Amino acid sequence: MKRVNQFMAAIAICITVLVGCQDTDHPVVPDIVQPTPCDGTSPSNGWLLKQINGWSKEAVNILSNEESAKMAILVSIFSENKSENQSFGPNGEYTAQLISTFKDLRQFWDIKSDNILLVAAHGSMLQDREKVLTAYKAEYGYSDEKANYYADSLATLFKTYPEYLNGSHPFFTFNGYAHQEKEYAGVGRIQDKIVFGDALLQAFDTLGYGDIAPQAILAHEFAHHIQYDLGIKDYAIPLTPAGNRRTELMADAYAAYFLSHAQGAAMEWKSIEKAAEVFSSLGDCLFDSELHHGTPTQRKVATEWAYKVASDMQQRGHILPSREFAKLFDAELPSIVKN
To answer: In 3D, which of 278, 329, 266, 250 has the Cα closest to residue 107?
Structure first.
């Protein structure tokens, strides 16, 4: 059971946005999360667990390490510097869908977004030792000697454990990430990015959400860039369970508002229900974790609330400014987290 718990914790790390939260003009949110009824099982986690069925104990234990779960995403952050010629999905099957939605999101929201890159993370990237080396040095501040040691260790793990498929196993790309522009020693300034791992898209497609999950998750990650722009989210602020829950549920709401609005994706309620199921599947019961994303029920409720807001706004032919939407969400948040 401990091994399973470790791996589930690694999964939780793998599907979270690892950035901090800051509120510049809204009420301070308490740091502590009061637990609510919660079922931590989900179809998406179940899908990933099926992918490791039959693995050795050692192979499972090693992947409870946070760095291994993040490395493909980090390699993409530090090496993919153009949105052009990106391919999303194991066979590029989600590329057109994501590029079209990204264009629509830029037109819909009132933030500066021409500086945001949309890039992919493929497991095959982990075969490029120089890129892995750069990621270790830039993200963790490792010396050349230490970074070389870890890069060599990763390569050795791939040779030792065929279960990892040389980095192409879904575990390594079961993630999506909104990177905020930042200066890195030895690398320079890395601009705003949204990174999509192949397996995250593959999982939801297999589960029957291929028609909605790419747009929904992209809209959620784009929402984090709205939060960066407004100062609601920032690397410099320590993570807290309640703070992270707030920004994640808010990102669900931003996403659902765009998906629902007549001037956004203009989706009908049936599609929004599926989007709510996608976000719910990525919820968790890690109430004490600084990476807490809200429970499955809370994520569903946040999505449904935003649909109602969009339904009201579109009757007036109006798109809410992003800051005004955040204020409306904060007013509703106490009701959302009671669920």
So the answer is: 266
